[in-house]
Amino acid sequence: MFSSLIRYRPDRASHQRVWQLAWPMMLSNITVPLLGLVDTAVMGHLPEPRYLAAIAVGGVIFTSIYWTFGFLRMGTTGLVAQAHGRDDGSGIRRYLGQSLLIASVIGILIWLLRGPLIELALQLTGAAPDVIDEARRYALIRAWGAPAVLCNFVLLGWFVGNQNTRIPLLLLTLTNVINIVLNLLFVFGLGMRTEGVALGTVIAEYASLLMGLWFCRKLLLNLSGEFKAKALLYWHDYAELFHVNRYLFVRTLLLLFCFAFFTAQGARMGTDVVAANAVLLNFLMLISHALDGFAHATEALAGRALGRKKKRDFYQIILTATLWSLISAMLITLFFAIAGETVISWLTSINEVRAIAGQYLPWLVALPLLAVWSYLLDGIFIGTTQVKVMQNTMIISVILVFLPVWWLTQGMGNHGLWLAFSSFFIARSLTGGWVYWRLTQQNRWGLAPE
User: Fold this and answer.
1) Exposure of 102 by Cβ count < 10 A (0-12 exposed, 13-18 middle, 19+ buried)?
2) Residue from 294, 344, 339 nearest 320 by CA
3) At a CB cut-off of 8 Å and minimum separation 6, what does 427 contact?
4) Which residues contact 164 (CB under 8 A, 6 or more apart)?
5) Does any domain span residue 11?
């Protein structure tokens, strides 16, 4: 990956462009796992671990459901970034309208089917009956937020594709501040439990949607081109979106299968283990969302460079993002190595959960350096809409690496589960890196020769 980039050494302008988009996304992304940390901390300081375990189980259900449709953000970002590079204002408007309509329909369907979806997911987790009861109460409330969540995915992707990451920072910060305040109010002020955390999340999701639409309207007033309503009426007008999103859909299903499988296997080892893994998974969310700041910048800038057919800009952005992603991963690893035990103690006062989480903390210390490459490569592939590649490398990583490693290491208990999880990230990085090298060697990015 690196040898092909040496001749495109980044200049000061490329560093500024990457950081201009990356820092708002890093801050806004970090607010997402911080919300999970607050939920964990609120439940973790209640007297029984079943509340914490219920949030973990209920949370992974909606993480799985919502992230299944993560293509609504990723596909929108790549297509809009390329349209932005072509100065195609009409295309930018069309992608927004079509994606919001798709998101609304899917969100309403999730709400209508919430009962059977939640029951099926709860049974698959294999959690204890008292945990399932609490998780059910949480999940039934969370389902009301489905249309808002999926439309927010579209808006975030649309803003990033338009090279604007400060609005997503504001929106995600607003969402999480409202959620945190309401969680504390409902749980400690009104004596609610898991249902209070779920209700606070739903209210925050709709507040974010309303503000996002307001910002969207302001940006559209200064955008060239026109919107044609008939583009929403006929299936053939959605062909480009569907082509991109079908591969992202399969890729995301496989990714979420790994997370759901991880949680379910932990649940079979006992309530304390699944609760401890929930604490550590919040660390993983912090890692991925922080490193995704540079991936999002790469999506927007690489997509724009491709739209403009600028080969030098394209490779300079990739090299710059690679450099800063590696530095960030090293700093995150150092932070968890030094402060991991302290953060665990902040998140839960249950001694058994603390002890188990501390036992498996070294896996989290290593993960930033293992996973950073997969995040960066995803940013490149999304921005260039090379999404079939993302699907195929994910199939290899899950079917040929993650599941076989888990099967062979079951005798290692939770350590085997974490080993399989780490192997999954390594496989994604290696397969994605190989594909990137092949596309570069064969000049298949669609860039104009210099």
Assistant:
1) buried
2) 294
3) 396, 397, 400, 401, 402
4) 219
5) yes
- Pick the closest to residue 296 from 117, 129, 161 (CA basis): 161
Q: How far apart are CA 315 and CA 1, in angstroms?
A: 11
Nearest 5 degrees, angle CA 386-CA 389-CA 391?
115
The predicted-structure confidence for 171-201, as pLDDT tens digits, reads as follows 888 888 888 888 888 877 787 777 888 888 8
Residue 283 lies in a domain: yes
First-to-final CA distance of the chain: 20
* Distance separating alpha carbons of residues 366 and 265, to the nearest angstrom: 21
Which DSSP symbol is given to 411? G
Q: Give the Å distances, CA to CA, from 164 to 80, 190, 427.
A: 12, 39, 32
Backbone angles phi, psi at 72, to 5 degrees: -65, -30
Structural domain count, the chain: 1
Regions of the chain with pLDDT less than 50: 1-2, 4
Residue 46's pLDDT is: 64
Flag whether 446 is in a domain.
no
Q: 272 near 354, Cβ under 8 Å?
A: no
Q: Which two tokens stand for residue 127?
A: 């959690």
CA dihedral 4, 83, 88, 168 (to 10 degrees): -120
What are the angstrom distances between the C-alpha of 90 and each of 76, 102, 223, 224, 310? 14, 18, 9, 7, 22
Q: Compute the distance between CA of residue 45 and CA of residue 33 in angstroms, rounded to an integer.
A: 18
Specify the DSSP class assigned to residue 399: I
Q: What SS3 class is residue 11?
A: coil
Q: Both tokens of residue 308?
A: 């403009």
Can you give the pLDDT at residue 44? 65
Contact 276, 360 (CB under 8 A): yes
pLDDT for 66: 81
- Residue 1's pLDDT is 46
Q: Give dist(CA 306, CA 85) in Å, integer.
A: 7
Tally of CA atoms within 13 A in the half-sphere of 83 that contains its CB: 25
Rounded distance between C-alpha atoms, residue 44 and residue 37, angstroms: 10
Burial class of residue 356, CB neighbours in 10 A (0-12, 13-18, 19+): buried
- Best CA proximity match to 173, nearest among 19, 325, 29: 29
Q: What share of the chain is helix, strand, coil (3-state, %, to 5)?
A: 90, 0, 10
| Residue 447 in domain | no
Range of the domain at 259: 3-441
Question: 53: closest CA among 283, 276, 357, 355?
Answer: 276
